[in-house]
Q: What sequence folds into this?
């Protein structure tokens, strides 16, 4: 899946699960993602997605996950967590995400 963040193209390597299948069926998507905790950007989706929630223990920079059934999250830092998520995928070029840490909100386009 392709993700464009503030006009910069990236690729997401997707997990193989029902969540990603349903997300792909809804593309393209234009989203505004807001900052939270200085380590992630999030947005609430209009419709819920199916979940396969697991306690991940550690968040990796570049991870794309679903919190609950309707909150899409993009992480730009690596850190431990006690929260549970449904894994969607990981941005292949995660080392290039530092620029989003300085922004309160970002514009994101998801495409096939």
A:
């Amino acid at each position: 899946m392709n993700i464009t963040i503030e006009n910069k193209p990236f690729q997401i390597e997707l997990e193989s699960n029902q969540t990603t299948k349903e997300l792909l069926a809804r593309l393209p998507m234009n989203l505004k993602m807001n900052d939270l905790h200085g380590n992630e950007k999030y947005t609430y989706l209009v419709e819920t997605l199916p979940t396969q929630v697991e306690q991940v223990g550690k968040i990796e920079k570049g991870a794309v996950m679903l919190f609950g059934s309707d909150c899409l999250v993009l992480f730009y830092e690596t850190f431990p967590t006690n929260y549970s998520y449904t894994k969607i995928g990981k941005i292949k070029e995660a080392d290039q995400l530092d620029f989003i840490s300085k922004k309160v909100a970002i514009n994101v386009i998801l495409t096939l």
In short: The first strand starts at residue 2 and ends at 5. The radius of gyration is 13 Å. Residues 2-111 form a domain with the Cyclophilin fold (CATH 2.40.100.20).
